[in-house]
Give the backbone structure.
Amino acid sequence: MELFVNFIFNVIGYLALAYLFAMFIWIVMSFVGGRDSAFGEFIGSIVEPYLSIFRNIIPPIGMIDLSPLIAIFLFNMARQGLNLIHAWVLSLL
């Protein structure tokens, strides 16, 4: 049972890490260009629904949009919370 729980939490953790990398790629693409490519549109379709929540709440300061920083910070906190839940579930077994 412990092996199954570890597998599930590892899969979720790796998917969350991949999503975090996709957000970083999307942010870098905003500086260097390439959002109009097929790859850029694919990454945008994945990360924009999450990032748009923060863009609606946090207004840009001049030309600088800080909402992706807040979004990544909160996403990383959720990943750490997932690790705590994983440890708690393992302590119950």
About this structure: The longest helix spans residues 2-32. The helical segments are 2-32, 38-57, 67-92. The mean pLDDT is 93.
